[in-house]
Design brief:
It contains one helix and four strands, in the order βββαβ. By secondary structure, the protein is α+β, with helices and mostly antiparallel strands.
Length: about 70
């Protein structure tokens, strides 16, 4: 997996990231089991950039409520 430096002095992350807004209920009811499986598959593939935001699902995705 190729990687990049995030920003000017940021951490080194994978060039391909996983967008997590769809796991928050933004686009319909989330399937927590499928979301966790997707994150595990991304990590297994070498993805180290998970795109989350506090406003995705009222902060649920960026919090510890979803336990991997």
């Amino acid at each position: 997996m190729l990687d990049r430096i995030l920003g000017t002095n940021g951490p080194r992350v994978s060039a391909i990231g996983l967008g997590c807004s769809g796991m928050s209920g933004t686009y319909g009811p989330p399937d927590e089991g499928e979301s966790i499986a997707t994150i595990h598959a991304a990590l297994d593939a070498g993805v180290t950039l998970l795109d989350t935001a506090d406003f995705y699902g009222m902060g649920r995705i960026a919090s510890r409520e979803m336990t991997l």
